[in-house]
Amino acid sequence: MQIWPSGERAVLVEVATLAQVHALAAALAAASDPRIVDVVPAARTVLVVADSAAHLPGVAARVRDLDNDVPTARPVGGLVRIAVHYDGADLTDVAGATGLTEAEVVARHTAPEYIVDFIGFAPGFGYLSGLDPALNLPRLITPRLRVPAGSVAIAADRTAVYPRASPGGWRLLGRTDAPLFDVTADPPALLRAGMRVRFEVAG
Amino acid sequence: MSDRILTVLAVGGGLTLIEDLGRPGFAALGVSPSGAADRGALIAANRLLGNDDGAAALEVTMGGLTVRAESDLLLALTGASAPATVDGAAVPSHQVLAVAAGSVVRLGIPRWGLRTYLAVVGGLAVPEVLGSRSTDVLSGLGPEPLRSGDVLPVGWARSALATIDAGQAPPTGPAFMLDAMPGPRRDWFTQDAWRTLFAGRYRVTDVGDRVGVRLRGAPLSRARDDELPSEPVVAGAVQVPPDGQPLIFGPDHPVTGGYPVIAVLTESARDAAGQLRPGQDVRFRHHVSPVARTDV
């Protein structure tokens, strides 16, 4: 574990694996230290933000002390099931590019249990790993200016759901009515780092 | 008694937004803290009025705002030094201004600085989103940018008598010196780049955006070329993309960034960065980190 100061109120903690990122983030959340206002997991790092500059040394010491206790195994996150209407604008193209039928693309997308690696790009946008390698295709060369909210999409080795309409270059397989981000909900985001996700064909 | 309301009669060419101290605590869900770009100026205005430090106020970019008070109100102006009038008579900044119902408050173009804060006793009482009234221009949370004709509700003072606290003295000119400490990826840059950052001037290239401010000057060369996995960033982080030209993240920065952060501004320098104008030159000054780097 390496701890780098990131300004007067935060430290960036680097660990070896994504599983350790999730374990450290979970341990810090469980500690519910009132001096810590934000814990932000990413691919190999966790940002820990203190409520004041005066509290940063104590918060950094807390992170250091946790190092011995953080398990190296990924904590088992909650399971979210997302119902998908597989009628996306790129479904036919994805089938063509992968040599699969549309039904096979859907079958391969609904088979795995995905992990939310981290949240980024937009509020509630989770980067999900675990995609079937047969569906690994690059992003669109020309991104769309407007991807509809709820679009279920793939790019390279990941899949994701667009929480709201935005530009985007992922390939659209379908759409969901699940509320990915709702400011009136608690918590407002359906997905959080470390959670497990399964996509199901909407009935 | 008339309603406690500010009516927007005109907005300037830059954005006029409602901002408070933001919504920390949601970054793990992809939501940046947002909040006033110059928090010191917002807090100074609120303290003048006896408001909570985080009461919501107007953040006026490059002046040009005209509002009418629909009831008797106390207000204060801080931040960028914009010439202001109440019913045509010049009024000072960094003072409590008592305006009568029907008075028109007008802000001209700032002589220096970018963002002027107009705060009212009781704060602006628009609905909160995730615990904050701030507009986040990147994620689209919070109130829409103000437009002519908008009607803004004003809250009630929390005490009958405002506790006047002058707070910090008003700034007297543009900030050109930004205190910065080593960032988490300082080692991704050459020693020469580290010296370069503090040696020369950098010019603010485009309109100060709340997402980030791009600078142009001597390029900062990297000591390693591998790709950095996206990592969380803070407001005030100085990120360096492949062209070597630094970018300072603002309050509505993306939660994660894909380029190494060479340095991070101090909290007060971050506020100063919120006042940088296009074409202005800035320099960086080395500041010692509050905690040591640790390998555990």
Automatic annotation (TrEMBL), chain A:
The keyword NAD does not apply. It is an enzyme of class 3 (hydrolase). Pfam families: CT_C_D. SMART domains: AHS1. Residues 1-191 form the Carboxyltransferase domain. InterPro entries: CT_C_D (IPR003833), Cyclophilin-like_dom_sf (IPR029000), PxpB (IPR010016). GO terms for molecular function: 5-oxoprolinase (ATP-hydrolyzing) activity. Keywords: ATP-binding, Hydrolase, Nucleotide-binding. Its EC number is 3.5.2.9. NCBIfam families: 5-oxoprolinase subunit PxpB (TIGR00370). This is 5-oxoprolinase subunit PxpB. The gene is pxpB.
Automatic annotation (TrEMBL), chain B:
It comes from Occultella gossypii. The keyword Hydrolase applies. Keywords: ATP-binding, Hydrolase, Nucleotide-binding. InterPro entries: CT_A_B, Cyclophilin-like_dom_sf, PxpC. This is Biotin-dependent carboxyltransferase family protein. Pfam families: CT_A_B. It comes from the Bacteria. SUPFAM superfamilies: Cyclophilin-like. Residues 28-294 form the Carboxyltransferase domain. The lineage of its organism: Bacteria, Bacillati, Actinomycetota, Actinomycetes, Micrococcales.
